[in-house]
Specification:
YaeB-like fold; 105 residues
């Protein structure tokens, strides 16, 4: 089954944020809202897929809530909820200007 379908299906049931995600979202220079995370989950695109992740199948998603700023969300669909592992504003140090392509090290 398509991972994007699983993500959106599980997020309609419930969205649970890890402590790490909440810490990242509440960082003074980020302040990412749950509405922004929901926008990425429901309207964003998958940049990287991690089917073998230790937390279960997860992926990195990208979106531009309100066409304001880029937001990355790492999430893992579960049967009864979507786990938000982290959410952050991507930096140009690690990402190309499209915020979709990792810079080569």
């Amino acid at each position: 089954m398509d991972i994007i379908y699983l993500i959106r299906q599980s997020s309609e049931k419930n969205i649970i944020y890890s402590l790490h995600a909440l810490e990242e979202m509440n960082a003074e220079d980020e302040m990412i809202t749950t509405d922004e995370v929901r926008h990425v989950v429901f309207n964003g695109e998958i940049l990287e897929d991690y089917p073998e992740d230790k937390r279960g199948h997860s992926c990195l998603m990208f979106g531009m809530p309100n066409n304001r700023r880029p937001v990355h969300v790492v999430c893992a669909p579960k049967e009864e909820y979507l786990a938000i592992i982290t959410a952050y504003i991507p930096s140009l140090e690690k990402w190309e200007a499209d915020f979709k392509t990792r810079r080569k090290k």
